[in-house]
Structures are given as C-alpha cells and as structure tokens.
Design a protein that fits this description.
With about 375 residues, this protein is an alpha+beta fold. Helix content is about 20%, strand content about 30%.
Length: about 375
C-alpha cells in the first residue's frame, strides 16, 4: 500500500511540475476552461501574436476620398435701390451724392465627385446655381477654376469641368444591388471644415414624394450629412459610388440622421446626357396624376391600390391624342407596371421623345389598350 501511495505522490508531483512549466512558458498550449478569457501572446515590441481582426473601412475611404472635391462658389448680388432716389424732388435737394449701391458677393460651399479623367465633376445643381465664379479644391491640395457644362434642376444635378492632369476618378457602384442595412460612407466638406468621412447604413431605398425634386428615387442614410456635404459622394464599403448626397431632413440645420442621396444610376444617366448634349431630354405625356389611396381604390372598384389616377389631360398633348381621359387609371406603360404617380412620372421621363408606347388603362372597370407617341418634356423654369 505504501508503494502505491508513493507512486501516486510522485506522479502527481511530476504532473504539477509540468503544468507549472507550461503555464509559465507556453500558456497557449493549455486547454481553457469554458468561459475563460482568451490568452493573447505578445510579440517583442508589443504586437499581439494572434490579435482579432480590426473592423475598418479605411481602404474604402482611401479609394474614394481623392475623387471627392470641395467646391467654392461666389455670385454677385445687386442691392435694391430705394425708389426715393428716383423722386425728382429728392434729387433736387440731394443730387446724386448717394449714387448706386455697390454690389455684394455671396459665397457658398459644397462638394463634388470627379467622374472622368477629362475633368468632369458631378455635383448638385443648387451648389452651383447662378454662380459667377466656381473654385474647385482637390484632396491633393490642387485648385482650379471650373465652368458649368450643364444642369438638370429636376434631379438637382449638375456637371462642371476643370482643366487639370492626372485626376483621380471614382468608380461607380451598382445601386440596384444595394440593400437596407448595407454600410455606407458619406464624403464631403461639411460646414467648410475640410474633407470629412462619416459612416452609417442604408436606412431605406426608393424614397419618393418628399417634395425635394421633380424626379425622386432617393437612397436614405443615417450617415451624418451636413451643409457643405451637398454634391459629395455616398460610397459602399468598397469605395464605389452609390449616390450623390443631396438633402437632409433637419429642424436645426444639422444632421438628424436622415439624409438623402441621388442613386448612381440616375447620376450616370443625367451626367452622360449633359456631357453629350448639354442638357437632359425627357419624355412627356401631358397628364396630371394622383396616387390611388385604399379608399379611392374601393370607390373605383379596383382590386388593389396600384396604378396612377389621371386627374387631368393637357389639351393637344400626347395623352390627349392617345385618348386618355380624366378618371382613367393607368396600370402599365411600355410593358412596365405602374405602382403609383411617382413611378409613372419616372417611367415617362426615361422614354425618348417620338417613341411609340402602349398603355394599359382601366376605364369604368374595362381594360383598354391605348397607343401614344411620346412628346418632349418642356424645360423647367429656373427655381
């Protein structure tokens, strides 16, 4: 018995010695109890041998930031002269000593995105609208004067151009594959502090009826967007352009986490038209439309609240020539279903003037097929 106890004591002593040696020299070789924290071995110089991967979007930011520019504009504002100065009685006593009021210059700032090595930059129309001078500052420190190539107030987009060599160009992403919850970065020049990157997610897609632009299909994001970010880039986690930051919902003038960007597909379509033709040409049907509410669907005896209600028809328009009448419900146009009034407006806009299209219409419960020759949308007056 003593012999067995001696063997047991020696074995236990040797085991404890081995355990102590391993725990001192190579603790990573020992099994960890459930719930125990991981042991991190530190290399010489303080770097962990097997540290967890750090979540970062620095690669995306570095890829997109060089192509995002700061835009500074100035325009001359003429002071309104008092009608009193035109009174002969007043002028008899005071003459012309007051003279003309000197003009003042108002300045503003925004952002833009370089989309071509030929110097084309996309920004918001409201950033450069009525500007007498436009100065562009690149992320690498270079500056250049810019000229306006064309504007599209109905989408609030504009294209300007600078003359510089070796320009960084952003890559377009596929906003059609974007999903709610995707991580995005907003890059711009908020409040003029300098180029800034903020992070958020896509909060919603296809936002319409906000009353911001004529044609709306916004990407909504909670990435911080502030005054000065307008015209800047909204990029995905790979640094590809998903949209142009355009507007925010705010009660204070600052970010409340509700920002809106114009999708890259719309940006590409508009900028290609402006570069090629100097303006954007859109189709026109000549109707006034309304959304179909659930209550309206019941009164019209519709199966679902989908389509666009024709509230009015412009005399002599393509719609008038096709036989559309107030009270008709437009269900499809050119083979594509119409979900609502905004969807109809966007669908009409992408059809080329002169193109013959078929429309599916409900009139007093009867389905009709009508043909219309698309017209050219009249130019929107400057706002």
């Amino acid at each position: 018995m003593k012999k067995l106890w001696l063997i047991f004591a020696q074995t236990t002593t040797i085991g404890l010695a081995i355990w102590f040696l391993l725990s001192t020299v190579s603790p990573g070789l020992l099994p960890r109890p459930a719930g125990a924290p991981a042991v991190v071995t530190v290399r010489e110089g303080g770097a962990p041998a097997s540290a967890p991967a750090t979540l970062t979007y620095s690669t995306a930011a570095k890829r997109a930031m060089p192509a995002v520019v700061n835009i500074y504009t100035a325009k001359e504002i003429k002071q309104q002269r008092s009608p009193l100065f035109n009174d002969p009685f007043f002028r008899h006593f005071f003459g012309n000593r007051f003279g003309e009021e000197p003009a003042q210059k108002a300045s503003s700032l925004g952002s833009g995105v370089i989309i071509s090595d030929q110097g084309y930059i996309v920004t918001n129309n409201h950033v450069v609208e009525s500007a007498d001078e436009i100065e562009v500052a690149l992320a690498d420190g270079r500056t250049a004067s810019a000229k306006i190539i064309g504007t599209d107030p109905e989408t609030d987009l504009a294209v300007i151009q600078i003359q510089l060599d070796k320009l960084p160009v952003i890559s377009f992403g596929n906003d059609g594959k974007a999903q709610v919850g995707d991580v995005v970065l907003a890059i711009g020049n908020p409040f003029g502090v300098g180029q800034t990157v903020t992070m958020g997610i896509i909060s919603a897609l296809g936002r319409t009826e906000l009353g911001i632009n004529t044609f709306e299909n916004f990407i909504q994001t909670d990435a911080a967007i502030n005054p000065g970010n307008s015209g800047g880039a909204l990029v995905d986690s790979n640094g590809n352009l998903l949209g142009i930051n355009s507007a925010i919902y705010s009660r204070s003038g600052g970010s409340l986490g509700i920002g809106f960007a114009i999708p890259a597909a719309t940006v590409k379509q508009v900028m290609e038209a402006i570069i090629k033709e100097g303006s954007v040409t859109r189709g026109w049907l000549g109707v006034e439309v309304r959304d179909i509410s659930p209550e309206l669907a019941v009164s019209l005896k519709l199966d679902e609240a989908k389509g666009a209600l024709i509230a009015g028809v412009v005399r002599g328009s393509p719609a008038d020539g096709a036989g559309l009448k107030p009270g008709d419900v437009l269900r499809s146009l050119a083979g594509k279903d119409i979900a609502n009034a905004s969807g109809m407006l966007n669908q009409i806009a992408i059809i080329r003037p002169g193109e013959q299209v078929e429309m599916s219409v409900l009139r007093r419960g009867q389905e009709l097929k009508l043909q219309a020759k698309m017209g050219k949308r009249p130019k929107l007056a400057n706002r």
